[in-house]
Design a protein that fits this description.
Number of strands: 3
Largest sheet: 3 strands, parallel
Strand content: under 5%
Radius of gyration: 45 Å
CATH architecture of the largest domain: Up-down Bundle
Length: 439
């Protein structure tokens, strides 16, 4: 670092090793190449290929790798070093390289003469080294022309790199802006998962806890009433289960087709010709009882106040054993089945105009309609609505004599992640603001 140098971001990549030293893996050369490629293939970087003047540039592996990732040479700048070590008579060949006549590069070549090890040991300052370098080129028979062409000295290189970097950044700004926007979107989404950490002061912490519990309580109530819709809609799932129950009721309706067989199988001690209501009642009770197992299957898929809902469903089946319905309802369904019209004024009436099977079918239809609604309503009431109310009461009770700091304690990793995300958000926001001025 120095006040006398330009601001540049440099990544110093390792030299390409060919022979592994003791303790190094056999594929050390390939590992280094992969590392170098990882950096130089990025379109937002400028690749500086450093080549000593005293070797054959055409065989330089670094330049070859740069050409592979940048065939047109738009991101490659070549730097020729050690001009004081070239063999006498090769100066013109080196000049041809610098003049872009051997391996052309869009950004060309620059020659520099850095401090030698002896100068470093002698604590030669950068300012002194800069003057020594300039004197070298000024007094060189072949290379002095490079000064006028701005193709020699570290100072010239620094100015060139700064301008190249600025130009390259300008070209990359739209792409950088899109990348920053995407990163900002991702960071904001991540922050939502851990945003709103608890305040440190007791009063603020208590208020934070109250607001948090209230929001949670509101969500529970909204969810139980079907107002809050998540990705996996609770009521959509319940409705599907309730539909299965309704479909089962409709598909399992007995036909009661043979009233004579029904009467004979369930005949008591009465003489022929006499009707027995007990027959009607017994047959219907038997078929209603067959619905208990599927009803319990519907309940087993739920949790919470299962026992309470189970008890109410059992009571519903016990009530269905009473074989009761209002006369107008029964007569309406019976009329629909028999295609004959029955009126309350005709009561009491004999069943010779209508078979037992049709009367059983009429009442069973009423049972199906009642059960199709009653079970879902009981499950919704006892396992959703009342559960939500009990949970809400328990949540609000946490505020009574609660240890706020204990309730609001969070894992240190969470707070650290929140801080890191907020810092990233600040940096990205600042970067976006800076970019906006240039785009």
């Amino acid at each position: 670092m120095s006040p006398d140098v330009c601001d540049l971001t440099l990544i110093d990549l390792p030299g390409i090793a060919r022979v592994p030293l003791r303790g190094q893996p056999e594929d050390i050369g390939e590992q280094i190449k992969r590392l170098i490629i990882k950096f130089i293939e990025k379109q937002e970087t400028i690749n500086l290929v450093v080549v000593p003047c005293n070797i054959d540039i055409a065989t330089t592996e670094a330049l070859k790798m740069a050409q592979e990732v940048d065939p047109e040479g738009k991101r490659t700048v070549a730097i020729l070093t050690k001009p004081d070590l070239i063999d006498t008579g090769t100066e013109k060949s080196v000049l041809a390289i610098v003049h872009n006549e051997v391996i052309p590069l869009c950004k060309g070549y620059t020659m520099v003469k850095c401090r030698g090890q002896q100068q470093i040991d002698d604590d030669i300052s950068l300012e002194q080294a800069t003057q020594i370098e300039r004197d070298f080129f000024q007094n060189h028979d072949y290379f002095r022309c490079l000064l006028n062409e701005d193709k020699a000295t570290i100072k010239c290189l620094a100015i060139k790199l700064t301008q190249e970097l600025v130009d390259h950044i300008k070209k990359s700004l739209p792409q950088l802006d899109e990348q920053i926007k995407k990163l900002l979107w991702d960071v904001r989404n991540e922050l939502k998962e851990c945003e709103g950490g608890p305040p440190q002061d007791p009063r603020g912490a208590k208020q934070f806890l109250t607001q948090t519990l209230k929001r949670f309580n509101d969500q529970i109530n909204s969810l139980s009433s079907g107002e809050l819709i998540f990705e996996e809609n609770l009521f959509a799932q319940l409705r599907a289960e309730f539909k299965k129950w309704n479909d089962h009721l409709n598909s399992s309706k007995p036909s009661f087709s043979d009233s004579k067989v029904v009467s004979q199988e369930n005949r008591g001690r009465e003489l022929p010709g006499f009707s027995n209501y007990k027959v009607f009642e017994t047959v219907l009770q038997k078929h209603v009882a067959e619905l208990k197992e599927p009803a319990n299957d519907l309940l087993r898929g739920m949790k919470g106040q299962k026992e309470k809902a189970e008890q109410r469903i059992l009571e519903q089946f016990e009530m269905e054993n009473l074989i009761y319905t209002q006369d107008p309802i029964f007569l309406k369904i019976l009329s629909e089945i028999t295609k004959e019209w029955f009126l309350e004024e005709q009561l009491p009436m004999f069943d010779k105009e209508c078979t037992y099977s049709q009367m059983m079918k009429a009442h069973y239809e009423i049972v199906v309609q009642r059960m199709a609604d009653q079970l879902p309503m009981m499950i919704t009431l006892f396992m959703l609505k009342e559960t939500a109310e009990l949970l809400s009461t328990d949540i609000l009770s946490l505020l009574d004599g609660a240890n706020v700091s204990e309730l609001l304690f969070e894992d240190s990793d969470v707070s650290k992640r929140r801080k890191d995300l907020r810092d990233r958000l600040d940096r990205l926001t600042a970067a976006q603001a800076e970019l906006t001025e240039f785009i």
